[in-house]
Amino acid sequence: MSRSVCHTVTSQEAGKRLDQVCGSPELYATRSAAARAIEEGNVLVNGKNLSKSYLVALGDTIVCALEDERPAGVIKGQAIPLDIRYEDDDLIVLSKQAGLVCHPSLDHEDMTLVNALVYRYGDAGLCHVQGDDDRPGIVHRLDRDTSGLMLAAKTDEAGYLLMDEIRMRSVDRHYIALVHGLIAHDSGMIDAPIARSLNERTRMAVRESPSSRDAVTTFQVLQRFQPGANDNGYTLIECKLFTGRTHQIRVHMQYTHHPVVGDPVYDAHSPKKEEASLGLNRQFLHSYHLGFTHPMTDSEMTFSDGLPRDLQTALQSIEPRGKGLSARGEEVMAQLRQAPVQSVEPLDPFTGY
Question: Percent of the chain having pLDDT more than 90?
Fold first, then answer.
């Protein structure tokens, strides 16, 4: 059941961010809930969909479509195994397993990375920099079924500084992906804005709209694999993010007609045969490299993460069809072979365990 609430911006609210104004008890329970509603097109300002960072003006009319919200409360800790690669008094580097949602939401209230972090460190042992109570420790996200390296923060100071590094594009994030089809160019840049899909609000899409946000992804080809009876071939690529939009790599690769193998959502232009997914039940997308400057010590930190076993198995199944590694492919694969492999199992997509 939903209802609409109209709010007129006051002089005390003028100049504040839209998600901050909407994250009030009268509208949405938390700032993150407000941000989700804005991104999903459920908030109109003077009749228009605007970004959550829009600075409201005196007299702006905000109309919010309110759903029954998840009741606000203390996040409970849950004993979910984590693969911690590094930690100190300020931050955590971990390798997130597939199937693990980063933080609670309306459709996924527990069994998240946040629940695991609270269990391990306690709510007081994590940063609270997102302006609400349901994302302690979180400074950036990975999709549920994307595995690999990510950062979390223990203190607010470290959290704010890490978020600044991410916003200034100082955090070096590289992903490895297997996509359908043979990409002709050895490298490229995809510069295409992303917004909520017009037809399905849970999906993102490349489109021009007032709510669209700039999105830039670069890629380099590591190896190509000849077409088989059930597919149109594959290309193994390394992707680097210059922005951090929701589902960015997956949306951009579908946009180029080279969707990520195993992706159950952004699968337009994928071969129809089930065998083309190489036995995967999630997208072949892994955050394998993370580099950043420690916000408190100024030390340069670099981490690598080997391919999880399900992705290794899929890649080995098409190895005989490989056309040879590129020079960059040789470097990346050598790095992956030397890197540790996740020590935790993926969570079941149906039960969350």
Answer: 65
Predicted TM-score (pTM) of this structure: 0.79
Is the separation of the CB atoms in 219 and 188 below 8 Å?
yes
Distance CA 331, CA 98 (A): 25
Known active-site residue 263: no
Within its chain, how far is the Cα of 137 from the centroid?
A: 15
| Number of structural domains the chain divides into | 3
Domain extent for 8: 3-66
Backbone phi and psi for residue 4, each to the nearest 5 degrees, phi listed first? -105, 135
Q: Please report the pLDDT score of residue 131 as a whole number.
A: 58
From 19, 134, 143, 231, active-site residue:
143
- Other CB atoms within 10 A of residue 187 CB: 13
Q: State the number of CA atoms in the 13 A half-sphere of 110 facing the CB.
A: 14
Mean pLDDT of the 145-161 span: 95
Same domain, 264 and 324: yes
Long-range contacts of 66-70 (CB under 8 A, 24+ apart): 66/2, 66/3, 66/4, 66/5, 66/27, 66/28, 67/1, 67/2, 67/42, 67/106, 68/1, 69/28, 69/29, 69/33, 69/106, 70/29, 70/33, 70/104, 70/105, 70/106, 70/109
Do residues 197 and 302 both lie within one domain? yes
278 in any annotated domain: yes
In this structure, the answer to whether residues 202 and 320 fall within a common structural domain is yes
pLDDT one-digit tens code per residue, 251-287: 999 999 999 999 999 999 999 999 999 999 999 999 9
With beta carbons less than 8 A apart as the criterion, state whether 291 and 171 touch.
yes
